[in-house]
Fold these 2 entries.
Entry 1:
Amino acid sequence: MSPASDQSPVSELHFETRDLLFEQLCLTVVDQLNQAIRQRGSASLIVSGGSTPKPLFALLAQSELDWAKVTVTLADERWVDEDDPASNAKLVRENLLVGHAAAASFLSLKTPESTPEQGEKTLSDRLAVLVEPLDVVLLGMGGDGHTASLFPKGDQLARALSGTGGTRCCAMRAPGAAQPRMTLSAPFLLHARQVVILCTGEDKRRVFEEARAGGPVEDLPIRAFLQQTPTPVAFYWAP
Ligand SMILES: O=C1O[C@H](COP(=O)(O)O)[C@@H](O)[C@H](O)[C@H]1O
């Protein structure tokens, strides 16, 4: 592991292998959730979907923790049925909410309504049960610099980035997203004790470096988490 130190709220932790990364990140997340439970009696864990976090979910699921005091939700969801292979909830239910972690509560980001726009109000109310600041927010990043479902050229990107009106979540449609989405807003995700950006592979490292160098948030929305000061952000990366 090679931590880089500077004055920014963004720290970088680079690992030689993915196994080492996932082991260390699992320990860190469990430690942070335990601290929250000790301090507040409960903890929140916001996770991302996609392919990258699957091995981490397997390790977390086997970790001993008072999972009954943990509420898990997603940073974003594809607007598909929960048995659809593209569903982030399916990924979480099958890989994280098993073993010890089966005792955790899960807030889905999907409603029976046919569009995410119709589901937004219901979901915003559902998310209001989460105590702020959130405890651990685990983000991923796509090769286009999207995180959660904050996509470049997303139809609601400006609203999701600004969180106008206290928006906790936002419907999103974007050229780079195969399905309509629901995403947590950037201000809601950033109102957290710890944000982690989990990435693997050289391509994503290059995108992250480009984002960190500065530029418009709309072009690489991951920048919303790098161009801010109050929230600690840790970038976990392995080849
Ligand atoms: O569509 C999504 O993509 C990102 C990145 O996914 P990955 O497969 O490249 O790991 C993910 O963080 C997000 O939650 C997901 O909905």
Note: The chain has a mean pLDDT of 96.
Entry 2:
Amino acid sequence: MPDVSNEPATHTSPETALSETDQAGSILETAESLIKEPSTHTSPKTAQSEINQAGLIPETVESLTPELATHNSPENARREINPAGSIPETAESPLQATNRVMGSVPDQLESPAANSADRIHNLARLLTGQLQQNYGCCHTTEEDEVIAKVTYPIDRHSLPASFSPPLGYHLTPKLKSLLTQLRHIIDGTLERDHLTKLRHTLNEKLGRISGPAVTANIDCPKLLARLADSFKFVNSYEYRAGVERIPDDSEFNIGCPCNGNENGCDPSICDCLNIEEDSDDRIVPYQISENNAKLIVATKDFLRRKAIIYECNSRCGCSGDRYWNHGRSIKLEIFNTGSRGLGLRSPDFLHRGQYIDLYLGEVITKAEAEERENLTEGSHTQSYLFSVDWNIKDDEDEDRNMKVVDTRKFGSATRFINHSCNPNCKIVPVSTTNHADEYLYNLTFFANRDIAPGTELTFDYTQGEEHTTAAEVDPDTVPCLCGEANCRGQLWPNKRKGQGSKS
Ligand SMILES: C[S@@+](CC[C@H](N)C(=O)[O-])C[C@H]1O[C@@H](n2cnc3c(N)ncnc32)[C@H](O)[C@@H]1O
């Protein structure tokens, strides 16, 4: 690594000089082509007028380059900065001179009026002028090319490969500083360009979700990249190999005998009205919302129960249009919660019992879920598996028939719903068009209380299971950061990572 500092050791230590050089790496690369040309192409005078043309520097070139002020030819300039020669003695120290010179540059470069492309362009021109002054090189055509490259960088790799001053020359502190600034500005621009691209990609993906708008408000580049690059939003289940399904036209797929009147199905005969687990109660799960006559919501009583909904459908005597709110009717926003990764909220007011959305993703077999879980075990703490196990009776049944919804790579917006020990949503199993397929149904979110706009939506990942107490926290399990007064301290008991279970 060459010594790139011509300052006395007291001003720039070798370590600092080296690290500055490293920092300026890609700028040095950018500037390489500037110094390949012989010194005859552009005189210092031309350089000065070009720099002034750029509208950057109110002062003269001489005032910006005091070490050159007394020299009119590149020859002299070369001798001046040649390490073999001596730095002329002036009234001020080299550091003072550098500070004085550099002091005026950042102000202009940081002008809030200038956008990043302008700033790069201006800085590149300034840098070009400085290189011309110091090394007496720079061909206008080549300069234009370099300016074009740094002004409109497509990516880091489009910049030239390396830069070093001509043999026997050192970079002045001012040039080093300019190069470093250019590097920072280019880096900032590349990052902003990258973020803009990611946002665009993500917005396109979000735009393909059916129903009211789903938006993303994500400031963290890493989270944004994860979502834009490696996640696909889906509007229905994605069935994977080995998942067996009973066809919709199966003879076992029958509807209720109700002929449907304005009171809905008859609880005494309706086969769709669900039967609560461990009871013979037939429950009517819906009612018209007390606060919004146009809204059908899950009843308060139903939200307290552990039950599945068999929704009436086209095979029913009532023609299936009575109880159900078909499709999502609220807007959603994915946002960065900070400590718990991404989360979900709605800008709309949600009424207690209001249908929110489905939990969609890849439908896989239990064996496949175990394989996927083993593959990711230990590499992260996030889990996106939800068991569809409402009708599973025993271990054998589970091994043979249980399906799991995996939302790690494919999913709906609800896959961003985080856990809370005091949740405002509930996930309910809902069988819709195919009541015959007892091993496959929808996982459906409802508001279990009124929810103000902008409130994070949460549900209990161990809903329906026995809960541990805060005193029983397993230090090896995923700690819960819901922040509620009744927080149990962990997401899943006993190191369990899968979050799904019977509701
Ligand atoms: C289904 S994802 C929820 C979305 C997730 N936050 C993300 O950024 O993709 C479940 C994961 O979110 C995180 N998480 C959810 N609720 C949490 C909580 N209360 N405390 C800590 N982490 C939580 C855990 O990493 C968990 O494995």
Note: The pocket of S-adenosylmethionine is lined by residues 340-343, 381-384, 415-416, 418-420, 478, 480-482, 491 (CB under 6 Å).
